[in-house]
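ok trying again, last paste got cut off:
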Amino acid sequence: MKRAGFTVIEFIFVLGILGILAAVAIPKLAATRTDAEVSRGASEVATLVSDMGSYYTSQGSFAALSTMTNVITDTPASGTADAQTSNYQAGGENCILITFNDVSDGNVTLSDVANPATAACQGLQTVANDVVKNHVFGGTGVTY
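nice, full thing came through this time. structure:
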């Protein structure tokens, strides 16, 4: 009587090959996820700056960030009637500090939060300057 099926050795070889494929594929998947988060963050930062510019142009002053845009930022880090600051988060950490000030002629300043821990935040800080450097409105424009 002949039995059809895999031997234990063949099964071990198949598992070894699958393990090698998984070891190669999983890091690539993680890198793709980080790239997607950086791309989304860059797009949202550009939208944020554009929305702020449109609001400032139409109203002549800034309002609360949640009034000017639908881009989600954390609750304002600090704020007065003249200046407000908020953080844009990427990779689950504060990544870019947004500061806008009505008194100083409608300018927006974006600055990097020091020593980001996640790859998504590091990547966003690298590309954010290129994304927003050409937006000018209010006084002298956007500073990064």
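cool. The first strand starts at residue 78 and ends at 79. The radius of gyration is 24 Å.
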